[in-house]
Specification:
By secondary structure, the chain is mainly alpha-helical. The chain has a domain of 205 residues. Helices cover 63% and strands 0% of the residues. The longest helix is centred in the N-terminal third of the chain and has 78 residues. The N and C termini lie far apart (114 Å).
């Protein structure tokens, strides 16, 4: 009897031990399963959250770029609104007399000092207008749109330059350039209009067409070589353009890009002087043959 009772007791103890072991094993398995499930859920949630945030950042960046581009185009169109109707038969009146060129050079030097901050980052290459430029003086609106598109492509391809910073810098440069150009026109244009029209306009316009053919080289804008700008446009175009480009490299710190512009013929350079002064900043960006814009943007 005692033996049987002992066996019963032992069996009961074994059953209890097995039950406890099974319960512990089930609990541990459930905990591990729950932990793994929680980890996977957290990882998926984190991934989805990161993706959504990245998409939102990309959308915001694209919107900012589009807004800045949309703001830049109307601003440039505002200054070129009236530059279309008088380009065909005008002999052009250029408000740059030889008598007041020193004052223009001083103001241009100050303008170049203000524009160096935005040129430091413009290290990319601008491959624009490689074809024949049969009509350099088309509407200023088209030139501004092409310039904006080229700038956008430059921002995409520039190494180490963020698109938003470069677009903001470009807009600031456009605003500063337009404001400074308007002040320069107001100060220096009115007093010398009649003298320039009577003495130098015709000769300057006649001699300004032959210099746009081969000006495909790199033009590093200069601030120190405008002492000879008082000569006739013919002497400047044929004698001093090469030397001016060679000596203008010291004034641009990081503007290493080459501007392949103005390879065609400037058939309609005879715009009115008022329009030329108003749109000279943006026009010179797309025409490497217009030395005043290049000189204005260099320090």
């Amino acid at each position: 009897m005692d033996y049987v009772l002992d066996e019963i007791v032992i069996n009961l103890q074994l059953r209890q031990t097995d039950r406890q072991t099974d319960r512990q094993t089930d609990r541990q398995t459930d905990r591990q399963t729950d932990r793994q499930t929680d980890r996977q859920t957290d990882r998926q949630t984190d991934r989805q959250t990161d993706r959504q945030r990245q998409r939102q950042r990309d959308r915001q960046t694209d919107r900012q770029i589009d807004r800045q581009m949309d703001r830049a185009i109307p601003t440039q169109q505002k200054h070129t609104k009236n530059s279309t109707g008088t380009k065909h038969n005008s002999t052009g009146t250029q408000h740059n007399s030889t008598r007041t060129q020193q004052e223009l050079n001083k103001n241009s030097t100050q303008l170049n000092k203000n524009s160096t901050g935005s040129l430091h980052k413009s290290t990319g290459t601008q491959h624009n207008s490689t074809g024949t430029q049969h009509k350099l003086n088309t509407t200023q609106q088209e030139l501004n749109i092409n310039s904006t598109r080229t700038q956008h492509e430059l921002n995409k391809n520039s190494i180490g330059i963020q698109q938003q910073e470069l677009n903001t810098t470009q807009q600031e440069l456009n605003r500063n350039s337009t404001r400074t150009q308007q002040e320069l026109n107001i100060k220096n244009s009115t007093r010398t209009q009649q003298e320039l029209n009577n003495k130098n306009s015709t000769q300057l316009n006649k001699n300004s067409t032959g210099t746009q053919h081969n000006s495909t080289g790199t033009q590093h804008t200069s601030t120190g070589f405008q002492q000879e700008l008082n000569t006739t446009q013919q002497e400047l175009n044929y004698k001093n353009l090469t030397q001016l480009n060679k000596n203008s490299t010291g004034t641009q710190h990081n503007a290493t890009g080459t501007q392949h512009n103005s390879t065609g013929i400037q058939q309609e350079l005879n715009t009115t002087q008022q329009e030329l002064n108003t749109t000279q900043q943006d026009l010179n960006k797309n025409s490497t043959g217009k030395e005043q814009e290049l000189n204005r943007n260099s320090t």
